[in-house]
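Lab notebook, bench 4. Still working through the backlog of constructs that have no structural model yet. Next entry is a single chain of 152 residues. Request: give me the structure tokens for it.
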Amino acid sequence: MSEPEPDRMIEAEPGGQAESGRTPRAGRTRTDDGGAPPEEIVAIPLRHPWRILVAVLLVLGLAVFVLDAAQRSDYGWPDVGKFIFDRRISQAAWVTLWLTVYAMIGAIVIGLLLAIMRLSPNPVLKSIAWLYIWVFRGPRYTYSWSSGASCP
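Model written out:
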């Protein structure tokens, strides 16, 4: 009795369908006619009729929102136009952007240090890292003040 080949693929049935009901991929089937390449597969793209309808409805909803907002005086559009290009606003936006960058760099450094501490064989470092992570991630179960019970 011969052993099965480890890289054996499912051969195509005469109707072009494999045992799983799918058409086999080109170049993946074995041929019995002396190594001739398998016939090319014609791929038919899937149709998504609801995708177009949903996209049209979303664009229409956005247009209604923009038109409604443009016509409302409650937004104070003259004030928006006066302050949108004010120098103080752009400076505040730059400060916010730089604070975000610094916070991300700090978070990456702290996260790497904590990961290294958790992998350390030193039990003191491992415990400090565990405690820090436990405090900032929170315990597994938190107390619900409304019901007075612990929640997962």
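Notes after review: Helices lie at 49-71, 77-83, 87-119, 123-137. The beta strands are 142-143, 150-151. Flag for follow-up if needed.
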